[in-house]
Design brief:
By secondary structure, the chain is α+β, with helices and mostly antiparallel strands. It has helices at about 5-10, 20-35, 55-60, 70-75; strands at about 15-20, 50-55, 75-80. The longest helix is centred in the middle third of the chain and has 16 residues, at about 20-35.
């Protein structure tokens, strides 16, 4: 199991972690505020709010692992 979807795209079985694209968008708003004069110390610390589950069925088949259908329904991306 991995934290980032890139590992699953490269052949890993499952990843569950923060959606990095969403996090990068949030960083852009912080940069904008700082460039407009807000002190970084005045900005609140944020934690990820969007997470994604990615499953690689091709890898599961290779290692003879059965992924429950209920888990596949919850996945944000399934690699076949």
């Amino acid at each position: 199991m991995y934290e980032s979807r890139e590992a699953v795209d490269a052949g890993g079985l499952i990843s569950y972690g923060a959606d990095l694209a969403d996090s990068y968008r949030r960083v852009a708003t912080y940069v904008d505020k700082i460039l407009k004069g807000t002190k970084p110390s005045d900005l609140p610390v944020e934690q990820p709010t969007k997470f994604e589950l990615v499953i690689n069925l091709k890898t599961a088949k290779q290692i003879d692992v059965t992924i429950p259908q209920s888990m596949l329904y919850r996945a944000d991306k399934v690699i076949k």
